[in-house]
Write a structure and sequence with these properties.
Strand content: 5-15%
Order of helices and strands: HHHHHHHHHHHEEEHHHH
Radius of gyration: 26 Å
Structural class: mainly alpha
Low-confidence stretches: none
Mean pLDDT: 83
Largest sheet: 3 strands, antiparallel
Distance between the termini: 58 Å
Helix content: 55-70%
Number of strands: 3
Strand order of the largest sheet: 1-2-3
């Protein structure tokens, strides 16, 4: 028993059509048809929002379709594990290299080409995919963003939702040229890597998605010893005449203050609190 079987069975029991399910799941009828004919594998439950909609529409227990889809995917993965890794599509590799820092591009290209889909290429591709997927998933329920992108790409709203859902369900072994055109190219401005530490810095296109540059590091570091709460801060918090009006946010700010040598007094924290509240100490955005 798999996802297509259960969906078909419930549609028949309830006297419903594929187009009714597509409308409820907010996808195209073609997408539902490909799922039911097994031309498309069911997406992973943590990368899509359609299973909750299908459960509700087909009157199934909450989470039923998600559990079934994950079981089906595990069985299919077991059958694929023996296959050798295939290199990325040429278009995908070229796009990733084009986005790389120009000063490091040829060096990275040489590493990529030495071993098709080797460790470095998988690391870079997976990290870029994770960042772009996170941005796309954040916008999945943003109707304005979906309709805007759909209009720009000449797609319907439902078609655009399908494109996003399919992208969220892809992985580094199946990323396609279409994924690059629709997401990696417009969302990624550039990326750079420190080949000594494998630290990755990814800059997003601010005109499409908000956010700062993302930095990922893969180097062993000594963990910092835990920092205890300053005695002066403890006394400040225990004295209602000094801290009685402090909000949770203000207290959290005071807790983040660090001192190397001198130990602050309760009065210091009281004055810091007043400084924090004084509008003259801050510029208006």
């Amino acid at each position: 028993m798999d996802v297509p079987f259960v969906i078909r069975h419930r549609l028949e029991e309830l006297g419903l059509e594929q187009q009714d399910l597509a409308r409820a799941a907010r996808v195209t009828e073609s997408y539902i048809s490909q799922l039911l004919t097994r031309k498309k594998a069911p997406p992973a439950s943590n990368r899509t929002d359609i299973y909750a909609r299908i459960d509700k529409f087909l009157k199934l227990p909450t989470g039923e379709m998600a559990k079934l889809a994950d079981l089906q995917r595990k069985e299919e993965l077991k059958r694929e594990l023996g296959d050798a890794l295939a290199p990325l599509f040429h278009e995908v590799r070229e796009l990733i290299l084009r986005k790389c820092n120009p000063q490091r591009r040829e060096h990275v290209r040489a590493i990529f080409e030495k071993q098709p889909f080797g460790e470095l290429e998988r690391l870079v591709t997976q990290t870029l995919l994770d960042v772009v997927k996170r941005a796309a998933k954040n916008e999945l329920e943003n109707d304005y963003w979906l309709r805007m992108v759909a209009q720009l790409s000449g797609r319907s709203y439902e078609e655009m939702r399908v494109v996003v859902l399919e992208f969220l369900d892809t992985d580094i072994f199946h990323v396609s040229a279409e994924n690059c055109v629709s997401f990696l190219d417009p969302l990624i401005e550039s990326w750079d890597i420190d080949l000594a530490t494998f630290g990755l810095e990814i800059v997003l296109n601010h005109s499409v998605v908000p956010g700062q540059a993302k930095r990922f590091e893969f180097v062993e570091r000594e963990s910092e010893p835990p920092v205890g709460e300053e005695p002066g801060l403890q006394e400040f918090l225990q004295d209602p005449s000094l801290s009685g009006s402090a909000t949770a946010e203000e207290v959290e700010f005071l807790k983040q203050l660090r001192f190397k040598h001198a130990r602050p007094t309760p009065l210091y924290y009281y004055r810091e609190l007043q400084n924090l509240r004084d509008p003259l100490h801050f510029r208006t955005p």
